[in-house]
Amino acid sequence: MISLKTPDEMAAMRVAGRLMADFLNACCAQVRPGVTTGEIDTFARAYLGTLGDGTAVSGCLGYHGYPGALCISVNEEVIHGIPGSRVLQRGDLVSLDVCGFYHGFCGDNTRTLVVGGPEALTPDTRRLLRVTRHSLEAAVKAIRPGIRLSDVSHVIEKICLDGGCTVVREFTGHGLGRNLHEDPPVPNYGKPGRGPYLHEGMTLAIEPMVCLGKPAIRTRADGWTVEARDGRPSAHFEYTVAVLREGAEILTPWYEADPWSESWMAE
Ligand code: MF3
Ligand code: CO
Q: Quick check: pTM over 0.90?
């Protein structure tokens, strides 16, 4: 069942979303050569307590036993990388996926960055980031009441394939609200004109998971980390969005603190 948020609930989603975007950006600011993913997790746990009135909680920690306060996925790791002793190096592609609850409502968002800044990108990783980010932004622009869910999915898939990348099919975006995962699943592929109609009041996590090589994935022996089988890099960008009368509102506006956004989009 897809829950539609009342204006009051939407206001609470907006507050939670902003805090989770702040949380994500603060974690991203920790990314630099020589830092371990575990150190970013330690930072995240401390930073959570400084958000809002101090009652925000991670949506990752304890989720089906997940041990981290956030997911950190490096290079060929697509999603659900567990923070630990890995040392980040210049040129690594790092996805930080941050979700959490504030006053009972959830925000979920993800950025992929390159360690060392944009100069550390190769032509291929630059294309991967640009295409993935572009697919997310185009999906947001497409959203409005009355279109169907797979119209959004199709926009994402087309941009990724046209850009010479591939889309992971085993994991999807999702509705969210009082829970991290609600109906409907939001695939990153599909023919247009299928699935539920979008209605004002829906809240969705849109999250393309995109590969430079083949889209086949496997889960590592740690039970969580999902990696590209061919070992090639992967990227992931995510917003929580609200479907409003005029179109989508981004509830997790992490782009406000992303100095690389404009350069990617201008290319
Ligand atoms: N943010 C992830 C999502 O969109 C949630 C990860 S749950 C975890 O589903 F347990 F893996 F952290
Ligand atoms: Co999500």
A: yes
